[in-house]
Amino acid sequence: MAKKAVVLFNLGGPDGPAAVEPFLFNLFYDPAIIRLPTPLRWLVAKLISRRRAPVAQEIYAFLGGSSPILPQTEAQAEALENKLNEGGTDSYKTFICMRYWHPFAADVAQEVKNWAPDDVILLPLYPQFSSTTSASSIKEWQEAAKKIGLDTPTAGLCCYPTMAGLISAYADLIAPKLAEVSGKPARLLFSAHGLPQKIVDQGDPYQWQVERTAEKVVEKMGLENLDWKVCYQSRVGPMKWLEPSTETEIHRAGEDGISLVIVPIAFVSEHSETLVELDIEYAKLAKEVGVDEYHRVNTVGVHADFIAGLAAMVEKLSDPSIRSESGMRICPSGYKDCLMLAS
Ligand SMILES: C=CC1=C(C)c2cc3[nH]c(cc4nc(cc5[nH]c(cc1n2)c(C)c5CCC(=O)O)C(CCC(=O)O)=C4C)c(C)c3C=C
Ligand SMILES: [Fe+2]
Ligand SMILES: [Fe+2]
């Protein structure tokens, strides 16, 4: 029975008020986020994290001072481990690795090494690939693994924007929310975390993949004349970010005098961007600008279709014939645009 370690990657979040500023520093010190050389990047990260901390602390205060992203990811890791070990011949163990707060790659790589697996599978919990998320996490992992001499054969998954289990989980979660709309007609807003336009212009496939996810969900819903739109939330800083923004779309819905059903299309668990930004800030804005009804669809979380889809991809990755030479850059959904570890 082969031992297989599955490492789930996500962003991470502060585990208390004192962690907010150092968490933000780690985020802005990431060269995938702030693309400056080292001493300057350190200084910029210090300045931005100090300035942003009070705003972020207010956001996390709504959640009791900390992010639920780790417990949410733990639930997903447990569900995936159970699914993978269901009657199979391999023994799977899931690990969680966060990019900007604990558990960090250095500690998790050591834990994986101590478990002594025959195979390691890297699974970013980002359906759509971005240089700022999946690639940044995998790079950090590879550096940590190298440092401690973890040289177990490793396969990684770049992205899965149209994975069947993801799409059917969304369709299943959206349908009852659409049915809840009782007043004016509804528009479905697929809201993804934004990205500076410059990063997309440099070749990041995130926006393209987000659009593919939304299209597939709409196709799966099979509703005639469904009114829908992709938009981007959570802008930070003065740069131009992807458009239209979610705020702009909420204003437009108010002008059109319709209802909104909002779907977080790039997050697979609940955290500040869903529980505060979507549920509190945007819900308030929707009311102010005259949106008739505002409903928010839950993230896919531990939805059985999503977990089964992840498990199927992990099992597929166990087949060495579908791995590239480096073990990475696997794109089961056929996205040639995926740039992960192409270099
Ligand atoms: C698809 C996922 C994400 C992308 C792409 C992404 C890019 C990105 N984010 C920032 C800045 C911030 N993001 C923050 C929180 C946050 N971001 C994501 C996901 C993506 N980010 C998640 C899941 C979370 C929530 C974490 C949690 O609550 O646990 C924050 C902190 C919150 C705040 O201050 O508003 C910042 C800052 C940039 C600059 C960026 C791309 C360049
Ligand atoms: Fe973010
Ligand atoms: Fe890919």
Give me the secondary-structure topology.
Blueprint: E1 3-10, H1 20-28, H2 38-61, H3 69-84, E2 91-98, H4 105-115, E3 119-124, H5 134-147, E4 154-156, H6 164-180, E5 186-193, H7 197-201, H8 206-221, E6 227-233, H9 246-256, E7 259-264, H10 272-288, E8 294-296, H11 304-317
Parallel strand pairs: 1-2, 1-3, 3-4, 5-6, 5-7, 7-8
Helix pairs in contact: 1-2, 3-11, 4-5, 6-8, 6-11, 9-10
Question: How would you explain this protein's 3D organization?
Answer:
The chain has 343 residues and is α/β, with parallel strands linked by helices. Among the domains are: 17-61, no CATH class; 164-296, Rossmann fold (3-Layer(aba) Sandwich). 45% of the residues lie in helices and 14% in strands. It has eleven helices and eight strands. The protein has helices at residues 20-28, 38-61, 69-84, 105-115, 134-147, 164-180, 197-201, 206-221, 246-256, 272-288, 304-317, and strands spanning 3-10, 91-98, 119-124, 154-156, 186-193, 227-233, 259-264, 294-296. It has a four-stranded parallel sheet with strand order 2-1-3-4, with helices on both faces. The chain has a four-stranded parallel sheet with strand order 6-5-7-8, with helices on both faces. Helix 5 links the parallel strand 3 (119-124) and strand 4 (154-156). Helix 9 packs parallel to helix 10 (272-288). The radius of gyration is 20 Å and the shape is globular. The two termini are 34 Å apart. Residues 332-337 and 339-343 have low confidence and may be disordered. Bound molecules: ligand L6N33NVT and fe (ii) ion (FE2) (2 copies). One fe (ii) ion binds next to loops. Fe(2+) binds at residues 193, 273. This is Ferrochelatase.
